Amino acid sequence: MSVVSGNAWPANDLWPREHYLSSGFRLRDWLLTTDHKRIGWLYLASITAFFFLGGVAALLIRLELMTPRGDLVTADTYNQLFSMHGIIMIWFFLIPSIPATLGNFLLPLMVGARDLAFPRINLLSWYIYTIGGIFTLFAVIAGGVDTGWTFYTPYSTMFSNTAVLAAVTGVFVVGFSSILTGINFIVTTHKMRAPGLSWMRLPLFVWANYATSLIMVLATPVLSCTLLLIALERVLGIGIFDPSLGGDPILFQHLFWFYSHPAVYIMILPGMGVVSEIITCFSRNPIFGYKGMAISIMSIAIFGFIVWGHHMFVAGQSLYAGVMFSFFTFLVALPSAIKTFNWTATLYKGRIHFTAPMLYGLSFIGLFTIGGLTGIILASLAIDIHVHDTYFVVAHFHYIMVGGMVTAYLGGLHFWWPKMTGKRYSELWSKVAALALFIGFNLTFFPQFILGYLGMPRRYHEYPADFQILNAMSSLGAGVLAIGYLLPLVYLTWSLFKGQPAGSNPWNAKGLEWLTTSPPLKHNFVQIPRVTEPAYAYDRDDG
Amino acid sequence: MLTTETTDRRLSAQGPVAEQFEAMQQQQASNQFGMWLFLATELLLFGGIFASYVVYLFLYPQGFSEASNLLSLPMGMSNTAVLLTSGLTMVLTEHTINAGRRRSALLFLLATLALGLSFLAIKALEWHHEYQEGLMPVLGLAFEHSGEHAQQVRLFFHFYFSLTGLHVFHMLVGLGLLGTIAVFILQWRDPPRIARQVQITALYWAFVDVLWVVIFTLLYVLRL
Amino acid sequence: MNEFRLYLLSWIVLLALLVVVAAGAELLSGMLAIALVLGGALCMIGVIIVMFMGLKTADALLKVYATGGVLWLGFLVVLTMADYMTR
């Protein structure tokens, strides 16, 4: 990127003398830091721990489902397993994932600022996340919850004897972490962009995190309210969903999904932002249709708020409401489709480099497309009647959340790892991991589409014998998938100690973050850069 | 983005700029924006319960009307008037501290605190009254209202205690903030910073006031 | 009018609106009462937000976000009611 008054570290100086990790080795330099880069690492550590905890639950689920009979765990235990899997993976892994790790690290760098708008609140958000996590761990130890991550009433409020209160408290607390991160990102993006960095010159990763932050701020409080109402009913007996008083359990579902549907956009938009960065860099092309991409990101965030009833087609809401929500759901698919077309168009006539991040990026496009198309299938009222609460739904959302978001998250980690650590990692092993992920993922989840279509219900720990082959395939796939997740732990950690220095811009990428050293300086830039070019200016040089 | 500096003579515009910002105006604008965003989350937090109330108000207009009449309108009005007045004293606190008038600011701040405490006192009286009338179906206490729509009246009171309880919690937080600022004003160590803190707190306080107006309207006077 | 008087006037308007709202609820009934109560309440909220919270003098960004917050609550209420009103 052409920069008038920049601070590009000389390209032949591979290892900076001083950077954000070269001093401050005491524990308190980490636990009391206000440096957004260190806070990104704090989050990375926590969410990785929770990812593997949620993964253990998943492995136990798949182990149980190897055989048709419920022989590994009791039905009650199985209910607790899938509930904890959902709660941990959604609220303690996916929702914070990209924003709290990559977003925290990169947002100030990408807008040319020295830190986020509110550094101490950033640290507070991590502590709140950790406290919420402790509550949830307590719930796990106490035996877990069996309500599903969805906490439907009246079971959760009136009948369940499990650690519902601990679980909803944990999620309530972690919600504030989300809200604070969202506020920080919104204010930073509006108020702290470098001179010359207009909105239409921002990297799409910034747009994506901005839109995600809007959702965090507008949706999460309604979840907090809903969880509070569960707690109030369980503890104080003042319930508003109690049918004997004229309460309506479906009202709970309205409140719950008003948050939880936009939440799924929190769990995909940042991934889309990462993919835009990766695809452009490794095809050496600017993004196709930048404006359309930015508008699509905002449309997804906004329209995502008016579709929630598609989770409730057969719950008892009115048919009219069902038709309306179905219609809006079809509409919200449009911007996602536009993005997919534009990523593909970006590849056209590009010079493709099949690096590990690119493999993740390309995987994303394919897997997200499958997930998205099956979403449209589910949005059709007549079809949903048959596949609601079956494995079809399970496969759909895992294609988006895992095939999409987790893939993008790993791609982003691999893309920016050299920037964050100053180290290169093994090219070979990273590609092996990406391949293991793609193969393992499809093996695990594609059979589930078929199972759902054939009628296998979700949340059941046993099934008709006819379904065993597909279930066994799925469980074996989960094993391969696990390898895809474990490998990066090994070689990325190894790179911290033995990796070659990366230099400030090993991928020859565009973006302000690549102008600083790797690892970046403590205050990011020697001098705040002035921007004069659009984003992704790849076709302007030989690259 | 930075705009041209205007001479802002308010106390809050003085003082060293925080590390991550380039100018005081940027810092102030960011802090204000951050607080407004937080208040938007508060609106939606209460909003979930407001939306639920509206649903049931639509479903059970007579039951809720009957229940609303059981509340003490004079106490509700007093509480509203007290909070509205505290809104005035709070904005005057902000006005005077920005002019550097320490003593006036402290007086208005203490007035706001006193009014806030009065609100809590009236609320406590009200709750006590409801407890005595057997209208507090909390923690398994008996609910003693027998009428045509007894169950719906009870549902109303579930809302009443959830909403007023949540509001009281927010009042307590607000009073905590005010008390802390009172101490800061007494110490007067970093006046520009105190002025900025008053500005942000004033936003919060006024918004808790707005939430009360909504609660008052829904529970005490909106009968379908 | 200086700021002090503006605030005082706002306060008086607020108290007057409170009386109007309460009177409307107690003395009237039906659609008229509802209109008066809701209208009065919305005015009170407007005065507090515009005058006491400074939205009057705030930059466009804050006004957009304040409107957005209310709009979003509107989505929740309206779409949920769409279910209940069509059952």
Automatic annotation (TrEMBL), chain A:
PROSITE patterns, per the entry: COX1, COX1_CUB
Ranges that cross the membrane: 41-61, 81-111, 123-143, 163-187, 207-232, 263-282, 294-313, 319-338, 359-383, 395-416, 428-456, 476-497
Listed Gene3D superfamilies: Cytochrome c oxidase-like, subunit I domain
GO cellular component annotations of the record: plasma membrane
Membrane topology category: Multi-pass membrane protein
GO terms, molecular function: cytochrome-c oxidase activity; heme binding; metal ion binding
Protein name: Cytochrome c oxidase subunit 1
Gene Ontology biological-process entries: electron transport coupled proton transport; oxidative phosphorylation; respiratory electron transport chain
Function description: Cytochrome c oxidase is the component of the respiratory chain that catalyzes the reduction of oxygen to water. Subunits 1-3 form the functional core of the enzyme complex. CO I is the catalytic subunit of the enzyme. Electrons originating in cytochrome c are transferred via the copper A center of subunit 2 and heme A of subunit 1 to the bimetallic center formed by heme A3 and copper B.
Subcellular location: Cell membrane; Membrane
UniProtKB keywords: Cell membrane, Copper, Electron transport, Heme, Iron, Membrane, Metal-binding, Respiratory chain, Translocase, Transmembrane, Transmembrane helix, Transport
Pathway assigned to this chain's UniProt record: Energy metabolism; oxidative phosphorylation
First-level EC class: translocase
Species classification: Bacteria, Pseudomonadati, Pseudomonadota, Gammaproteobacteria, Oceanospirillales
Domain Cytochrome oxidase subunit I profile intervals: 30-532
Organism: Litchfieldella anticariensis (strain DSM 16096 / CECT 5854 / CIP 108499 / LMG 22089 / FP35)
EC number annotated for this UniProt entry: 7.1.1.9
Record's catalysed reaction(s): 4 Fe(II)-[cytochrome c] + O2 + 8 H(+)(in) = 4 Fe(III)-[cytochrome c] + 2 H2O + 4 H(+)(out)
Family designation: Belongs to the heme-copper respiratory oxidase family.
Automatic annotation (TrEMBL), chain B:
Pfam families attached to this UniProt entry: COX3
Location in or out of the cell: Cell membrane; Membrane
Bilayer disposition of the protein: Multi-pass membrane protein
TM regions (residue ranges): 33-59, 71-93, 105-125, 168-188, 200-222
One of the record's GO cellular component terms: plasma membrane
Entry keyword set: Membrane, Transmembrane, Transmembrane helix
Major site of localization recorded for this protein: membrane
GO biological process: aerobic electron transport chain
GO molecular function, one term: cytochrome-c oxidase activity
Keyword Transmembrane tagged: yes
Organism domain of life: Bacteria
Boundaries of every Heme-copper oxidase subunit III family profile domain copy: 32-224
Family designation: Belongs to the cytochrome c oxidase subunit 3 family.
The protein, known as: Heme-copper oxidase subunit III family profile domain-containing protein
TrEMBL record, chain C:
Keyword Membrane: yes
Transmembrane helix as UniProt keyword: yes
Name of the protein in question: Oxidase
Superkingdom, taxonomy of origin: Bacteria
InterPro entries: Caa3_sub_IV (IPR011743)
Residue intervals passing through the bilayer: 32-52, 64-82
Lineage of the organism: Bacteria, Pseudomonadati, Pseudomonadota, Gammaproteobacteria, Oceanospirillales
Keyword annotations of the record: Membrane, Transmembrane, Transmembrane helix
